[in-house]
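Supplementary Methods, section 5.1.

A reviewer requested that the exact input to the structure prediction be made available. We therefore reproduce it here, unchanged from the version used in the analyses.
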Amino acid sequence: MKKIPTFLLIAFTVLLALPFITKAQDSPDGPPVDPGADVPFDGGVSILIATAVGYGITKMKKEKEVKEIE
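The structure derived from this sequence is encoded token-by-token as follows.
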């Protein structure tokens, strides 16, 4: 049986507990928040799509180089 590295065990535990630790709560001092309020969607999604396209182009170039060598 393989041993799980300590780093992976700690990282998995932190990632599993993170949503519970960072749960958003209303501030007793601040104004009430409308539960149906719109949330901006484009902020990180455009960066994610650009990263995915760049990664895909890189993989395609590497694959083409490997085929040219063979």
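The longest helix spans residues 42-69. These observations are discussed further in the main text.
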